[in-house]
Specification:
This protein is mainly α. 61% of the residues lie in helices and 5% in strands. It has three domains: 85 residues, Fumarase/aspartase (N-terminal domain) (Fumarase C, Chain B, domain 1); 251 residues, Fumarase C, Chain A, domain 2 (Up-down Bundle); 59 residues, Fumarase/aspartase (C-terminal domain) (Ribonucleotide Reductase Protein R1, domain 1, Orthogonal Bundle), CATH 1.10.40.30. The strands form three sheets. The protein has a two-stranded antiparallel ribbon. A two-stranded parallel ribbon has the order 3-4. Strands 5-6 form a two-stranded antiparallel sheet.
C-alpha cells in the first residue's frame, strides 16, 4: 500500500483486520446454514458467534509457526470456544473462505468506486453544459482541424464515464459469487444446499462450477473494466496537459494559493495532477495482464495467483478510487481561459474554414476535384506566407461570393449548428 494514494474508505477495506473479519463472515454464514438445515445442533451458531476470539497480532504470531494464514486464523478464532469449535470450518477448504471473502471485498470496492464515478459524471455533465456554445478549435493529429464546441470535450468524457458506470454495474452482478464446495470443488464434504444457503446470507450466489478456487476469469473481467476506467481518466488528463502547454494556454489545472510548481523556477504552474493520473493509469492497466495470467492454474489449483492477488486487489482498487476522487477535483476546479480559446481559433489565419469554402464552391457548380485543388493551392500559399485565407478567397472568388457569403463561410457559429441535437441524446 502506498499511503500517498490510499484514501478512505477503500484503505480500511484492505487492512488485515478487515480481511479476517470477512473470513469470519464467511465461516459464520456456513455455520448458520448448517444449523438451519439441521446438520448441527441448534444453538451452535449463537455459541460460536458469542465465543469468537479475534486478535490480529495473535493470528500473525501463530502464522509464523504454522506458515498458513487460514489455519492461524482458525486456531486463534476458535481458541475460546468449547465443543462447538469442531463445527467451525467444517467441510471447507481455505480457498472457500479466502475466495468468497475476496469477492465480498471486491464488491464493496466496486460500490465505493461506482459512487464516486457517478459524482464525477455529474461534474462532467455540468461542465459540458456550461461550455456548450463556446467555440474552440478541434485538433486532429495535434493539428488545427475545424471549430467545434468546447463543451463537447466534457460531454465525450461524460458519455465514456457513463458507460464505465454501466460496465461496473454489470460486472458487480457477475462477481457476486462465492464458492463453498470443498477441496477440489466436488462437494465431497459439504452439501451444495449449505453453500447455496450460506452464500445467500452474504448476498452471493454459487459459481456454477469451481475447482478448489473460483475461476479467475471473474476477477480478470473486473480488472479489465478497472483498466477501461483508468484509461478514461488518463484520456481527460492528457487532453488537459496538452491544453495547458504555454503555447496553447487554454486551460490550467487547479493551483492552490500556497502551492509551488518547481523547486527551482518560481514562475512554474505544472500539470502535476494530470501527470500523476497518467502514471497511475499505467499501474492500473498493467494489472490486467497479471489478472489474465492468473486464469491459468495447474489442475484443480495452484497458488501462483495468490501472491499476485495480495498485491493486485488492494492496490488496483485503492489506486482507481484515488484517481476517480482526484478527477472530480480536477474537473470541478479546472481553470478555462476563454479568451485564449477564442484567440487560438485564429492562429491559422482562417485556414480552418477550408472545407466550408470547398463545399461552397461545389454548391456553386465546381467539381469536387477542381474545388479541392484550387482551395488547397490557396491554403498552402497562405500558410507559407502567413497571410489571411479569408482575404485570398475574397480576391480569388470576388465574382462568385458576396461579402455576406464570405462572412458566413468564415463564421465559427456554423460549426455549432447541430450541437443541441448532440446534447439532446443525453437529456434525462
Amino acid at each position: 500500500m502506498v499511503e500517498r494514494y490510499a484514501l478512505e474508505p477503500i484503505k480500511s477495506l484492505w487492512t488485515l483486520e478487515s480481511q479476517y473479519k470477512r473470513w469470519l463472515e464467511v465461516e459464520l454464514a456456513v455455520i448458520k446454514a448448517y444449523e438451519e438445515l439441521n446438520k448441527i445442533p441448534k444453538g451452535t451458531y449463537e455459541k460460536i458467534k458469542r465465543n469468537v476470539y479475534f486478535n490480529v497480532e495473535e493470528i500473525l504470531d501463530v502464522e509464523k509457526e504454522v506458515e498458513h494464514d487460514v489455519i492461524a486464523f482458525i486456531k486463534v478464532v476458535t481458541s475460546k470456544m468449547k465443543d462447538e469449535a469442531k463445527y467451525f470450518h467444517y467441510g471447507l477448504t481455505s480457498s472457500d473462505v479466502v475466495d468468497t471473502a475476496n469477492m465480498l471485498a471486491l464488491i464493496r470496492a466496486v460500490d465505493y468506486i461506482k459512487k464516486e464515478l457517478i459524482a464525477l459524471s455529474k461534474i462532467l455533465y455540468k461542465k459540458a453544459n456550461d461550455y456548450k456554445y463556446l467555440p474552440t478549435i478541434g485538433r486532429t493529429h495535434g493539428v488545427h482541424a475545424e471549430p467545434t464546441s468546447f463543451g463537447l470535450k466534457f460531454l465525450l468524457w461524460f458519455d465514456e464515464t457513463t458507460r464505465n458506470i454501466e460496465r461496473l454495474e454489470k460486472v458487480r452482478q457477475e462477481i457476486s459469487v462465492g464458492k463453498l464446495s470443498g477441496a477440489v470443488g466436488n462437494y465431497a464434504n459439504i452439501d451444495p444446499e449449505v453453500e447455496r444457503l450460506a452464500l445467500s446470507y452474504l448476498s452471493l450466489k454459487p459459481v456454477p462450477i469451481a475447482s478448489q478456487v473460483i475461476p479467475r476469469d471473474y476477477h480478470a473481467h473486473l480488472i479489465e473494466i478497472f483498466g477501461l476506467i483508468s484509461a478514461g481518466i488518463e484520456k481527460m488528463a492528457l487532453e488537459i496537459r496538452h491544453l495547458q502547454r504555454t503555447e496553447v494556454s487554454e486551460v490550467q489545472e487547479p493551483f492552490k494559493k500556497h502551492q509551488r510548481g518547481s523547486s527551482a523556477m518560481p514562475h512554474k504552474k505544472n500539470p502535476i495532477l494530470c501527470e500523476r493520473l497518467t502514471g497511475l493509469s499505467r499501474i492500473v492497466r498493467n494489472y490486467i495482464n497479471i489478472a489474465l495470467e492468473n486464469i491459468v492454474l495447474w489442475h484443480e489449483r495452484d497458488i501462483s495467483h495468490s501472491s499476485a492477488e495480495r498485491f493486485m486487489f488492494p492496490e488496483i482498487t485503492m489506486t482507481l478510487y484515488y484517481m476517480v476522487k482526484k478527477s472530480q477535483y480536477l474537473i470541478e476546479n479546472l481553470v478555462i481561459f476563454e479568451e485564449n480559446i477564442k484567440k487560438n481559433l485564429e492562429l491559422t489565419n482562417g485556414l480552418i474554414y477550408s472545407q466550408r469554402v470547398l463545399h461552397a464552391l461545389i454548391d456553386k457548380g465546381f467539381s469536387r476535384e477542381d474545388a479541392y485543388m484550387q482551395i488547397q493551392k490557396i491554403a498552402l500559399e497562405c500558410w507559407e506566407k502567413k497571410i489571411s485565407f479569408k482575404n485570398q478567397i475574397k480576391i480569388q472568388f470576388k465574382d462568385l461570393f458576396s461579402e455576406k457569403e464570405i462572412e458566413e463561410l468564415f463564421s465559427p457559429s456554423y460549426y455549432l449548428r447541430n450541437i443541441d441535437k448532440i446534447y439532446e441524446r443525453f437529456e434525462k
